[in-house]
Each structure stands twice: as structure tokens, then as C-alpha cells.
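User:
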Amino acid sequence: MAKLYSKIKPASEEVMLPKKETIDFLLNYSKALTYVKTENGTFENIAN
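Assistant: Predicted structure:
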């Protein structure tokens, strides 16, 4: 049987939060991303 390498997280572990720049980047990226469906497939287009 495979050995599991995951560890149980202690309750006192600090919470990691993303930077404001990271959140802004992801929001702007998702706003600029469009999908174009054609008969040959689906294409992603970033309008930046």
C-alpha cells in the first residue's frame, strides 16, 4: 500500500494571505480573458 506523506497541520499555523497586487492581477486577467468557440476548437484570447 502507498505511504501517505501528508502531515497534519498544527492549529497554531499562521494564515497566509495574498498581496493586493496578486489579487488585482488575477482580477484584471480574468476580465481580459475571452473564449472563442469555433468549429475547429475553443481559443483563449487575452485583450491586453
